[in-house]
């Protein structure tokens, strides 16, 4: 009977379904120190979110014959899994890339509007009994250029909603599907800098890797125009609901502090949980605690997709989202 | 030389333009007590936003021959102007109905997503050094029914964006243009109750009058389903960026308190500025201080439209948005 470890939680319904297939499901979170003792050799498969780090050290403890043979990432980003080491140990790695798309799209649009219309600050002031109507004059998104760094499923969803709002969408993606970009009526750029040079609003939708680390930096922020396409001085706005580290948080802090940046909304951080960040001292910083996929719908879809991946794997088939 | 009083502010560019026409423009806010002393007889026209109340008592002080002959409302709602009394005094009343449409559309969508994804609460918790990722599980808008009360320009704009997000839009408007509703692919209802019975998310886009006062009440909140069209338990959500008084704030407080309502986002209140409201004690209340039209773009458009209205009036033409 296959033993499956659910390390960072999963939707109840999916767990019941796996048990219905006769699998033994253990819901338990091991610390990084515990993982190094070789506990994963007691399981056939593990399902993680982002909290459990399956790095080279942890995976090196795996016994190729008796340890886990399947790593399921309940979510998209696999930067917490050393896929190279997993391959060495003959462990297959799968993620659930489509399940959280809609949730991240909606959070991105929410952060864009919250930032430009001071929704968070407005509520904060009201709770301080300050009717800050005059100081909360914002700007419209309509008539402005939105730059999307990366143009996968999430960016395509953001593009559709932003277009309905009346924004003009620009994009850069080294792996761009031009047909999709054209169908979305996007202006395609061939390098990152040109997106920044054209857009007052930038949203990040790429993976974290050595090419994208600190992609949003002081130099690029200062390339952005402060006047919108419609001639209104809307300032510069950055949203990151992708991965921490793509945005240089020190550069964001300095740019907000000296007025080069009008707002920054971050859902993800270089070090999570975010603790005592100096960003939290600034009025025009908007933070959320990595909740891009934190919806009932996304978690249910992730659970359903993971059940299919595990079923296929234990049935001897190659799971549809295998990454190695 | 016509003398124009700008009572609650107007975009600088518009004021310069009026002066360019040779008008004398006075920027001054009189208290309600001062207005009762007949100061408006020193002007030919007045431009107000919502702060100045031109009620029956104030307008009764106007001398038909020497007092103001034009009231311009820089904005949409004219509930602060007694149009009947103005007509008696032969004063023409105009508003700028289209200038703030886009700004209110964007704020409404922003509040909808902020509410369902806990954007405000997430930022608040981060500033308290609490990484509240787990308690901030939200729900998607996609797959849910959005009910719009009123289907004028703003609701049509909200409908377009909400459809792009993946919501199914329902509406009720006693003056409904069916062609427009059909073109927006809206489900048309013939009474208010049916919208509440079908929708987990409701947004208000009607005027305040004797028919719409406390239209959102305890009974109607409890008519709303708590499960979305997609089968997910998303709870009930109310947004009001239209006018205070349409929503019964006590009913909202009680429903949030006892869990009948999952979130309420209000930009407008029965009494403004909002002071020491018990709503502010609740985590799932989201407030903004009447900033629907508070954008650079809306204020510029309002100013430009007011210049045209005043120019036409003083040229002896009937202004295009005359309400009496």
What keywords describe this structure?
Rossmann fold, seven-stranded parallel β-sheet, 12 strands, homodimer, five-stranded parallel β-sheet, 2 domains, about 325 residues, alpha/beta, 12 helices
Number of domains of chain A: 2
pLDDT < 50 runs, ≥5 residues of chain A: none
Number of strands of chain A: 12
- CATH topology of the largest domain in chain A, what is it called? Rossmann fold
Question: How many strands, what sense, and barrel or not for the largest sheet of chain A?
Answer: 7 strands, parallel
Q: Could you tell me how far the N terminus lies from the C terminus of chain A, measured between alpha carbons in angstroms? A: 25 Å
Task: Describe this protein's structure.
2 copies of one chain form a homodimer. Chain A is α/β, with parallel strands linked by helices. Chain A folds into 2 domains: 3-99 and 296-314, NAD(P)-binding Rossmann-like Domain (Rossmann fold, 3-Layer(aba) Sandwich); 101-287, Rossmann fold, CATH 3.40.50. The first copy, chain A, has 12 helices and 12 strands. Chain A has helices spanning 12-20, 32-35, 56-59, 83-88, 101-116, 119-127, 153-165, 178-183, 192-198, 218-221, 249-257, 296-314, and strands at residues 3-6, 24-27, 45-48, 70-73, 92-95, 145-149, 168-172, 187-188, 201-204, 237-240, 263-266, 285-287. The longest helix of chain A is centred in the C-terminal third of the chain and has 19 residues, at 296-314. The mean pLDDT of chain A is 95. At the A-B interface, helix 5, helix 6, helix 7 and helix 12 of A face helix 5, helix 6, helix 7 and helix 12 of B.
